[in-house]
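Quick check before the chapter quiz. The format below is the same one you will see on the exam, so make sure you can read both the input and the output lines.
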Amino acid sequence: MNTTRKPEKSRPDSREDRLGKALRANLARRKAQARARADSDKGGQAENDAPESEE
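Here is the expected output.
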């Protein structure tokens, strides 16, 4: 039984794997930000489209 061998999962990711993960995380973050901006723009426009009250 060889106890000095490390399991496969403990080896560090290759540079391309790390960059790929970072790129996907960045894309997901940017999409979430764009969705949040679009939702807030829709909410702001709904208030602006409401008729003004006559006082």
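If your answer matched, good. The longest helix spans residues 15-49.
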